[in-house]
Design goal:
This protein is of the alpha/beta class. It has one domain (about 5-165): P-loop containing nucleotide triphosphate hydrolases (Rossmann fold), CATH 3.40.50. About 45% of the residues lie in helices and about 20% in strands. The chain has six helices and six strands; from the N terminus they run βαβααβαβααββ. Strand 5 (about 150-155) and strand 6 form a beta hairpin. The chain is globular.
Length: about 160
Amino acid sequence: MTKLILLIGLPGSGKSTLAQQLITETPHSLLISTDNIRGQLFGDEAIQGPWLLVWRELRRQLEQAVLAINQGQATLAFYDATNAARRQRKDAIALCRDTGFTHITGLWFDTPIWLCLSRNRRRQRQVPEDVIFRMYRQLRDAPPSLVDGFNELIRYHRGEFIIVE
């Protein structure tokens, strides 16, 4: 079984911090990040650049992760991106399945917006607040659910992991 954990949450929600911790604590796990991809392609994670280029590199890295898992070199992969809009989640899940992932868990960081904004203000690379508010509305209006195509969905809220039925 090829497993992927797809992270969901606002900028400043704690996704990347927890992903780094999980990568450290989970032997033979892989991290695929759209921020890292932008850094590789454009020399700076803050440069959005053409999404098609990011998407192609994302596909390539997902394919490499599936290959590594199938060859026993890795056990699972994490996909770190905001995935705030339902359409983004569905497209990402479809891409992950198309590249060979058979079990996809959504990990939704349901962090209060005030905390995300506070963390964002302390970052070196800040996301514009209007972008965070737009993503907040996307998550509020169409929160992650199993209907998105996940095998399972876990909500991280106030320090607790909750399985979404």
